[in-house]
Amino acid sequence: MPLYMDVHHRVDGLTGEAVAGAHKKDLEIQAKHGVRYLKYWYDTDSGTVFCLVRAPSSDAATAVHREAHGLVADELVEVQEGA
Q: Could you tell me the domains of the chain?
């Protein structure tokens, strides 16, 4: 299954608690779309969030964010895992 990295730029009011809450919502509905959100990173100073996700398609990954909390990524790139 493809691996994607998504990027959310300039998220207003970004906090660690807010990102954790959004990630939890993703996990609650991801199976419905055949998606598996694996990990996330964030930078509160720039308001940037990165999410690593296994999904059958970019549309499926986007659907989870849209349905879970409405915070759709600004960028979504298929990536290959390295060492």
A: 3-79 (3.30.70.3090)
